[in-house]
Amino acid sequence: MDKTVANLATAVAGIEDGMTVMIGGFGGAGSPIELIHALIDRFLATGHPKDLTIINNNAGNGHVGLAALIEAGMVKKLICSFPRSADPVVFTDLYLAGKIELELVPQGTLAERIRAGGAGIPAFYTPTSYGTDLAKGKPVEEFEGRAYVRERWLKADVALVKAETADTHGNLTYRAAARNFNPLMCMAAALTVAQARRVVPAGGIDPEIVITPGIFVQQVVEVADPQQEEDLNRANAVYPGVA
Amino acid sequence: MTAKLSNNQIAWRAAQDITDGAYVNLGIGFPEKVAQYQPPGREAIFHTENGILNFGEPPPKGQEDWDLINAGKKAVTLKPGAAFFHHADSFAMVRGGHLDVAILGAYEVAENGDLANWSTGPKGVPAVGGAMDLVHGAKRVAVITDHVTKDGKPKLLKRCTLPLTGVGCVTRVYTSLAVIDIEGGRFVLKEKLPALSFDELQAVTGAELLVSGTVADLIVPEL
């Protein structure tokens, strides 16, 4: 078994128009910038994929990564908890112009909906959002004297995640707080593509430290020196940049 | 109006109630200041939604590791005994009743414990983050806030007028003028600035203040 793919272009080849794509990361930490940029390259070359529904905690920053994906016009809808950030001009402008849909989900509910999607649990009850605007239209039930809101699972066609080390079986480790949503998204997508700083042969990761077991990962691609959104934004980078 | 506490002083006062060994989540922005004023000899463990327990001070400029950030996306460092975890575990800590204290900012707090701190209305881009999760599950949910808005209007009200973050969730409010508990759906005054009379405080509070027992002087060092 070898889940490695040769390059980034191959890694994002399975994403089609109208698909739902989970993208890992919290802000820039754990964001698979190179996979996102490869997807933008494909769109610029072929006009596809478009009309994507993207699931991420945020709406991107500056003009790289997720923000660049949105700026390229590939995203129809965003499902996230916090689309406001230091410099989210791309999403803000499109949203206020009515050109992109937003489903706002409390952060813990977003995480649990993704986890539930990966775990085969179609719905669950949470105290979060009870009595607020974000609970409107959702069933409420009382357990042990307290009200809970029913939330549904979230699943995706594809997940793009960033790992630290991957092995050829798709086992993954992460680095520091770059873990965040990545392990959950691996579970919840039909096709999970992980970029990793290092891809090692099976046996190259101590099983005791595997965070995401390879069963949740279909493809791995090595990106030896990944870019970090914060660094790119401090350099005022724009993707794909001016030719 | 007499002098009021600075944000640093409000944060200092809130920090005095955090016990040794407590697991604490501080909201983004102003509440993050509370971490600076832990009383000597006590060690609190700070939780951030994006998957760290026991993070510490920001690193010196230029030494940021952007995989090591807090929920406000600011660079942090680790203290001995830190742990990383994914987002579902992180919010299991939040909703599952494992945090001892969450300290949050507020636009409005109502006497029934309702909190509004995520939306100022339908304009602009809505964003909620972890606020609605944090108000559930922590054993104690406290608010730190100026006592009044920038226009001098009360932030402590009979009922919130802005979109709610959570219902009946706040148990203590540390303001620039007073410390107020929420008990049985009422504001109960615990401490106030000594130079301020009860009537002066009541005049800038949007719901009735009850007194049960003594009201202590709110005394905070210059910071």
From TrEMBL, chain A:
Gene3D superfamilies noted in UniProt: Glutaconate Coenzyme A-transferase
SUPFAM superfamilies: NagB/RpiA/CoA transferase-like (SSF100950)
Alphabetically ordered keywords of this record: Transferase
Pfam families xref list: CoA_trans
Matches recorded under InterPro entries: 3-oxoacid_CoA-transf_A, CoA_trans_fam_I, CoA_transf_BS, NagB/RpiA_transferase-like
Claim: Transferase is one of the keywords in the record: yes
Span of the signal peptide: none
Top EC group: transferase
E.C. number: 2.8.3.6
GO molecular function: 3-oxoadipate CoA-transferase activity
NCBIfam families: pcaI_scoA_fam
Family: Belongs to the 3-oxoacid CoA-transferase subunit A family.
Protein name: 3-oxoadipate CoA-transferase alpha subunit
Native species: Kaistia dalseonensis
Automatic annotation (TrEMBL), chain B:
Gene Ontology molecular function: 3-oxoadipate CoA-transferase activity
Gene3D superfamilies: Glutaconate Coenzyme A-transferase (3.40.1080.10)
EC number of this enzyme: 2.8.3.6
Protein name listed in UniProt: 3-oxoadipate CoA-transferase beta subunit
SMART domains in UniProt: CoA_trans
Family: Belongs to the 3-oxoacid CoA-transferase subunit B family.
Keywords: Transferase
InterPro entries recorded: 3-oxoacid_CoA-transf_B, CoA_trans_fam_I, NagB/RpiA_transferase-like
